[in-house]
Design a protein that fits this description.
Radius of gyration of chain A: 31 Å
Structural class of chain A: alpha+beta
Shape of chain B: globular
CATH architecture of the largest domain in chain A: Beta Barrel
CATH class of the largest domain in chain A: Mainly Beta
Helix content of chain A: 10-25%
CATH class of the largest domain in chain B: Mainly Beta
Oligomer: heterodimer
Number of helices of chain B: 9
Largest interface: A-B, 72 and 75 residues
CATH architecture of the largest domain in chain B: Beta Barrel
Strand content of chain B: 35-45%
Shape of chain A: elongated
Number of domains of chain A: 3
Helix content of chain B: 10-25%
Structural class of chain B: alpha+beta
Number of strands of chain B: 24
Strand order of the largest sheet of chain A: 1-2-3-6-5-4
Number of helices of chain A: 9
């Protein structure tokens, strides 16, 4: 009996090894994406400007002959005269197109092409949630000219509202040459808006003009424009499917985490322009002293404090870590390594308060700010299982495109790995995400689905491995999808010292070593370093650091880099076969 | 019946209430939450299943130390890859391990395994980017099944996971996972002399260092090998990454896994094609001399409609179905010539085995090229006929002064330079189709180009 049971058990194990993972929800999600794209495929067209030799993407709206696309790429010498062609990827027909109407306010144009496409269904964008999955279908790098349009999945990441009207919204799918004007569709295959080009400030996000706004403008124009665009707009579906559920859950997570997100600004001192010396008016008809009274001389003009605008590090996000006004933010915003700057913090309620830099940690690149308040709230920490690779992670912050400091930018991604960034500094055990974060996200919270804190988004820049969007010729293009966040368990042990005003710096011992049996043998000692002060000599073997044996260079380096300058280090030293214990104070890196 | 009607009423009631009743809304949110949690759990499961098979590749090369003259090993590059068999066969890109003196692979268990280049596709003028390494240092490795994924039924829109070592962020072995969707199939892209035809496109973030890394589908099956990206942002992700699909890789793997030291090439027909206008097929623009296609009589102007029974509708089809085969693969090419179907059968070969003649049609300078036989004047970007030279094609076609030249062979004309450009591929005696506007009406005429020398004599 027993062997037979074993046989079946083994068979089961053998079968399960090679079997694909059962993924019901993912499969239904994929089917939704595919169906949405299938529905929209007949409506996405390639628009080609003969006069400029430039192609972009358009979408069939309203009646079958109307194509909506962007105006700016079609302009030549400021006018829309020119020859345009539209290619329908499905029927592979290329036909001439003429301009029906243009709308300068939204920067769009309606074209008429004598071939029938399928008008796309449209829906309101004003009821979108943060994190709602959307598809960008376009002709990136000319892909649609040969075959089907290419598509990217993104999530709704930001809103730009004036009062209650939605002017723009942002998504995390990226736009490329050729996919300017690409339609953004929801997972029901319905049009939400079209992708703008050349919006430089979005920080690796795509700015979208909502269709309802475009439509309203053409309807207001009346005549042909109104006739051409006349399409009904639907609200969102009531029955929640996974796609909408992701949006709702993300929105709820944002609502929970919003209170811990603040905007951080550095002010700079600006000398006022020296007033031009006024000469009293003279000439015929001017009676001196009658019109102008001589002004009392004022004191010398005072330098003013204005919001910094010039540098990338003038603005960032910040993370509230407790209710009493302690806020973590990226170190570089505070002016480091230069002189400290005057800081202000934009509170969740829209007010702004002065802040002081209490302390910082150079290794972690975080500064601790203090704001006089007590009505903030910190986020609960995420449990360990939220750090598994593949878990959904949501990044909050203010991007360069954020219209104000109240509406955050929200990006959805997954946890890419944990324990990352060790190569930057051994003290890091960062959590990495593929959420498309931008420069303004630095300092903001990365949370899990329930709005619990995974970490503070780190200020890791291009040269260290491209944290966020790249800036090419003043424009943000691309987004590496490699974001890092600092879990709180790394910061917490240091908080008390930082609150007390500590400026934590990397520790420097000042020895070069090689690994030998029994420990690390000192080769050279840097003059004036901690090691020199403690009279360590070349030839000494360091056997233990703080009671732990060190066998490799990596182990030894780690044991020191865990500490900060000024901390004590206990060494067990072997000199001329004699063992001695000594304690020394670690120094700073020589500048 | 009555009962079901009751349910309906209850259901309707709950829907109408859901909007304003906070309790119902909470419940709805809870349901949504459950659904997303289930989705998330599946993502974690897929990632956890395949992550142990992904490795970070380090490529060390020898370097002479300028200070001492000693030979040193130095890391020259980093990439990614995936284990595809228990005994440690490891799939990566050629450009990751190219020129390496010494290769190591760090797996997620944190251990560093030395590896040897086993076989690759580095032969040929245009190299393929598939390389197989053999890992040493363990009896059995966690691996993925390289035969599992069904690429035929894989459709754009599927969720995909790219794993690897972008910017060496996974140098300790734990791979970086990025998620996206399959954006397209059958794409063609070329880079650094490597052949990328019929490849998958994804918007999962792919960055330098992801090269050679696996692209998995949501069932955890190996879909392809990441190797290339297209971006405005220099060498950084902009949502367009390419992966060599496993069905293409498999054609090579069967041979690569069998023979150590094998260097294979992609097979070439010796054809340059473009999408045929107005009909389905790939138009042959150029045939390289002595190539298999040349020997079997395929000529410029033929339209390839199928290869090995697979329909070819355009250039992309030709590239993804016929240009991605290993050398020595036998192909049967069906093509159209003067509305007649013809067939040629041959083996595709490494392109270095035949003469690669220029793939660009020869360009002639204006005084060598075919001549229209007319003078023109420009008004903004309109071209008007100024004078027609007698005894030339233009005269025979009865073009007259003040006609506006709209297009030549369907290409719009807006400058004299453009006319030269369009005619630079034509020789005297060839025919061109000219569209012109006279009295508000557009007409088309075919005229024979003449020799500039003849026209000069006429003057």
């Amino acid at each position: 009996m027993l062997p037979r049971v074993w046989f079946f058990a083994l068979l089961l194990v053998a079968l399960s090894v090679g079997r694909p993972v059962e993924a019901r929800e993912i499969k239904s999600y994929e089917r939704r994406i595919q169906r949405a794209v299938d529905d929209a495929r007949d409506s996405v067209v390639v628009v080609f400007s003969r006069t400029k030799g430039f192609d972009l993407t358009g979408v069939v709206v309203g009646n079958r002959y109307t194509i909506l696309t962007l105006r700016a790429p079609l302009l030549k010498n400021g006018s829309l005269d020119g020859e345009f062609e539209v290619r329908f990827p499905k029927s592979k027909k290329t036909v001439r197109a003429s301009v029906i109407a243009e709308d300068k306010e939204t920067g769009t144009v309606l074209l008429r092409a004598k071939a029938t496409g399928k008008p796309i269904a449209v829906r309101h964008a004003s009821d979108l949630d943060y994190g709602t999955p959307v598809v960008l279908a376009g002709n990136a790098f000319g892909a649609g000219k040969e075959s089907d349009p290419t598509m990217g999945l993104g999530f709704v990441s930001g809103f730009d509202r004036v009062r209650k009207d939605l002017r723009y919204f942002h998504i995390s799918a990226l736009v490329n040459p050729g996919s300017f004007g690409a339609p953004i569709i929801d997972l029901d295959g319905r049009l939400l808006g079209i992708a703008l080009l050349g919006v430089t400030a979005a920080g690796g996000q795509t700015v979208v003009i909502p269709y309802e706004r475009i439509r309203a403008n053409y309807v207001a124009q009346g005549g042909d424009a109104q006739k051409a665009i006349g399409a009904k707009i639907y609200p969102r579906r009531q029955r929640p499917k996974l796609a909408e559920s992701i949006g709702r859950v993300a929105q709820a997570a944002v609502a929970r985490a919003r209170g811990a997100l603040v905007g951080v600004r550095a002010l700079e001192l600006v000398d006022p322009p020296s007033p031009a010396p006024k000469t009293p008016p003279s000439g015929p008809g001017v009676v001196p002293g009658l019109i102008q009274k001589p002004k009392k001389p004022k004191g010398p003009p005072m330098p003013r404090l204005v919001p910094g605008k010039r540098k990338a590090h003038d603005r960032s996000s910040g993370l509230v870590i407790d209710a009493d006004g302690w806020i973590l933010c990226p170190l570089r915003v505070t002016g480091w390594p230069g002189p400290p700057r005057v800081m202000r913090v934009d509170m969740p309620d829209g007010s702004d308060r002065p802040a002081t830099v209490a302390g910082y940690d150079e290794r972690l690149r975080v500064a601790l700010l203090r704001v006089e308040t007590s009505d903030l709230h910190a986020l609960p920490p995420a449990p360990n299982e939220s750090y598994q690779a593949g878990r959904i992670a949501i990044a909050l912050g203010f991007s360069h495109a954020s219209p104000d400091v109240v509406t955050p930018q929200v990006n959805l991604g997954i946890v890419s790995r944990t324990d990352a960034l060790k190569s930057l500094h051994p003290v890091f055990a960062a959590v990495q995400t593929d959420a498309k974060i931008s420069g303004g996200n630095r300092g903001g919270p990365l949370v899990d689905l329930e709005g619990r804190l995974l970490g503070m988004i780190l200020d890791v820049n291009d040269t260290e491995g491209v944290g966020y969007a790249r800036r090419v010729r003043g424009r943000y293009v691309g987004n590496a999808g490699l974001g890092f966040a600092l879990p709180m368990h790394i910061v917490e042990p240091l908080l008390a010292r930082m609150k007390a005003g500590a400026k934590l710096k990397a520790a420097f011992l000042g020895v070069r070593t090689i690994a030998v049996t029994g420990g690390m043998q000192i080769v050279t000692v840097t003059p004036d370093s901690a090691a020199a002060k403690a009279k360590l000599q070349p030839g000494d073997i360091i056997a233990k650091v703080d009671g732990k044996p060190v066998r490799t260079g990596a182990e030894f380096a780690k044991s020191i880099s865990k500490k900060t300058a000024g901390e004590k280090l206990k060494l067990k030293l072997i000199r001329k076969e004699k063992t001695r214990e000594l304690e020394l104070e670690l120094g700073e890196f020589p500048s | 019946m009555v009962r079901s009607a009751w349910w309906l009423v209850l259901l309707l009631g709950s829907i109408t209430h859901a909007e304003d009743d906070p309790a119902a809304r909470r419940e709805e949110l809870a349901k949504a939450f459950e659904q997303v949690r289930a989705f998330e759990a599946e993502l974690v499961k897929v990632v956890a299943k395949v992550a142990p098979t992904v490795g970070a590749v380090s490529n060390f090369g020898t370097m002479l130390d300028p200070k001492t003259g000693r030979v040193r090993m130095q890391r020259r590059g980093a990439g990614s890859g995936v284990v595809i068999s228990r005994e440690g066969f490891f799939l990566t890109n050629v450009h990751v391990v190219q020129g390496a003196g010494y290769i190591t692979v760090t797996l997620p268990d944190g251990k560093i395994y030395p590896a040897d280049l086993f076989a690759d596709t580095s032969e040929g003028q245009v190299k393929g980017d598939i390389a197989v390494l053999k890992l040493r240092g363990a009896k059995s490795f966690p691996f993925v099944d390289w035969r599992a994924a069904d690429l035929k039924h894989t459709r754009p829109g599927e969720l995909v996971f790219a794993m690897g070592n972008p910017y060496s962020h996974a140098s300790d072995g734990t791979p970086v996972v990025t998620m996206g969707i399959l954006s397209g199939k059958g794409r063609a892209a070329s880079s650094r002399g490597y052949l990328y035809v019929g490849v998958l496109q994804t918007d999962a973030a792919i960055n330098p260092g992801n090269s050679g890394g696996p692209l998995f589908n949501s069932s955890g099956e190996l879909l392809g090998i990441n190797g290339l990206m297209q971006s405005r942002a220099g060498r950084s992700n902009s949502g367009i990454g390419f992966a060599i699909p496993m069905d293409q890789v498999r054609l090579f793997l069967k041979r690569l896994l069998r023979r150590e030291g094998e260097a294979m090439a992609y097979g070439s027909h010796g054809l340059e094609v473009e999408t045929a206008e107005g009909e389905s097929g790939a138009l042959v623009r150029h045939v390289h001399g002595d190539s298999p296609a040349d020997q079997e009589g395929i000529r410029r102007g033929d339209v390839v409609i199928s290869v090995n029974g697979k329909r070819i509708r355009n250039k992309a089809d030709f590239l993804s179905k016929a240009a991605n085969l290993p050398e020595k693969t036998f192909v049967r090419v069906t093509y159209m010539r003067r509305r007649k179907k013809r067939t040629a059968a041959y083996r595709v070969v490494d392109s270095s085995e035949f003469r690669v003649t220029s793939n660009q049609p020869k360009r002639y300078r204006p005084h060598e090229a075919g001549y229209l036989g007319l003078h023109w004047r420009l008004a903004r970007n309109l071209v008007f006929v100024e004078r027609v030279l007698s005894n030339t094609g233009a005269a025979k076609a009865k073009l007259a002064p003040d006609d506006r030249i709209v297009s030549i062979d369907g290409e719009t004309v807006e400058s004299g330079k453009r006319i030269f450009e369009l005619l630079s591929f034509r020789t005297p005696g060839e025919k061109v189709k000219i569209a012109y506007e006279r009295g508000g009406r557009e007409k088309t005429v075919t005229l024979v180009l003449c020799d500039v020398q003849d026209a000069a004599e006429i003057e």
